[in-house]
Design a protein that fits this description.
About 15% of the residues lie in helices and about 40% in strands. By secondary structure, it is α+β, with helices and mostly antiparallel strands. The protein has 2 domains: about 325 residues, 3-Layer(aba) Sandwich (Rossmann fold); about 80 residues, no CATH class.
């Protein structure tokens, strides 16, 4: 089966400048499908949230999967799946059904995929029951379920015990998840899939990626494990490599401040086998925002497996000053060369009432991590019926390990001038700040 799954994960979604976090590279490989005939059931989500482009992209992915399995087993010329392997289609919404039995005809399988229509809830438990029920107890073929879904369970029995029973009976479960309009319970997919989770679950937010995910899984299922594996990892410029944990499979060495090399002699050549590499990375940059963890990651093996690793991101909080009111957008212009005078039409600009601009800056003291702050600022002249203006803001949470000060700058008020012009005025400011979150987000 070649490399059936590859993954890369970071154990932190958000860090502060200078923080360290753990990164995991993972691979799973299995013997080829020709010498190890396999029965494969595609369990495909046709719930209402799949309507439109997601359903079309899923169908394209499933049919590509069928073609690759057929080609790799020597049956593509006859429109069959060869070498003793078979496939079936199960689909599910509020209920599940077996759209085909285990067959070798690619045209029958594709027709079942093409006939799928979206509508209804999501019943993962019955989908696993239908898929597992198609395997024949007397067959010596390996058993694989590929579960595709874009949502959370809304009906039917609890899927976790049914998936666990299937795994206990020797079925390998892979999960492909699309983050759809109804959300996706990634923890549930990890629970259903064969361990280790990181090498049997693939998640994407983009339906356009589905065909590539199905194709990669099918292509790797058809290859005979992996030998002479070499993985070269290089972290992005904002990070440095701190330490590498010796892997249980293969060997790894640090080759530079941001790079490492992981070598594996053989993986999955006699039975399904997983390998993982864990290393510690530290942030060294100075800018807040979402940052990709790796600059590049190269994979090669003697069998020519096509392996692509995800590109995890972490949000870095460097404690920058909060500016609740944006500055006016600049207008770009280009001055032609060798011209002494050049005119530029800048469009329209509203004129504010006569008055003064008051800019207020403040420091919120000891703001605890992972808590947003509601800030209210009132400016007035203290006279009944006089000037008074109130502004409210949501100050985003920070991710520090302890409470810290947060600087807020650029709170702007337009104060109309009173007669006579430019006289001295006494103003009053009232401030109120409350936490918006009672527990960590």
């Amino acid at each position: 089966m070649g490399v059936t799954n590859s993954n890369k994960t970071a154990d932190a979604a958000a860090i502060c400048c200078g923080d360290s976090f753990n990164v995991t590279l993972a691979l799973t490989a299995a013997p080829d499908i020709v010498t190890n005939p396999t029965d494969i059931v595609l369990a495909l989500d046709r719930s209402g949230s799949m309507s439109g482009t997601p359903l079309a992209d899923m169908k394209a992915g499933a049919k590509t999967f069928i073609d690759i399995i057929s080609e790799s087993t020597g049956g593509s010329g006859s429109g069959e799946i060869g070498s003793g392997s078979r496939m079936a289609i199960v689909s599910f919404a509020a209920t599940a059904r077996a759209d085909t039995q285990l067959v070798t005809s690619t045209s029958e399988l594709k027709a079942a995929v093409d006939a799928l229509a979206a509508g209804g809830g999501t019943n993962h438990g019955e989908a696993f029951e239908k898929a597992q029920g198609l395997f024949e107890p007397s067959s010596l073929n390996a058993r694989v379920i590929v579960m595709f879904t874009d949502g959370v369970t809304t009906s039917g029995p609890a899927p976790a015990p049914i998936a666990a029973a299937a795994r206990a009976a020797g079925t390998t479960i892979y999960c492909i998840g699309l983050i759809g309009s109804d959300g996706l319970n990634v923890a549930a997919l990890n629970n259903w899939a064969t361990d280790p989770d990181y090498s049997h679950v693939a998640i994407t937010p983009d339906a356009a990626d589905l065909e590539a995910l199905f194709a990669e899984l099918a292509a790797n299922i058809s290859k005979p494990g992996a030998t002479d594996v070499l993985i070269k990892e290089k972290l992005a410029a904002d990070f440095e490599l701190v330490d590498v944990e010796p892997p249980a499979v293969g060997s790894a060495i640090i080759t530079g401040p941001r790079s490492l090399r992981w070598s594996i002699g053989s993986l999955g050549t006699t039975s399904s086998e997983s390998a993982a590499l864990h290393f510690l990375a530290r942030h060294t940059g100075h800018t807040s925002g979402s940052v990709k963890v790796n600059e590049s990651i190269d994979y090669s093996d003697a069998e020519g497996n096509e392996v692509h690793f995800p590109e995890p991101e972490v949000y870095v909080d460097c404690g920058e000053t909060v500016h609740p009111e944006p500055c006016p957008e600049p207008i770009e212009l280009c001055l032609a060369g060798c011209e002494e005078v050049q005119e530029l039409e800048l469009g329209e600009l509203g004129v504010a009432s006569p008055g003064r601009i008051v800019e207020l800056n403040l420091c919120l003291k000891a703001v605890c991590p992972h808590k947003r702050v509601a800030l209210a600022v009132q400016l007035s002249d203290g006279f009944e019926g006089g000037f008074s203006s109130l502004k409210t803001y949501t100050i985003p949470a920070h991710c520090g390990r302890c409470c810290r000060d947060v600087r807020v700058e650029g709170i702007l008020f337009a104060v109309p001038d009173s007669a006579p012009h430019c006289q001295k005025r006494k103003m009053y400011v009232r401030l109120l700040a409350n936490y918006m979150d009672s527990s960590e987000l």
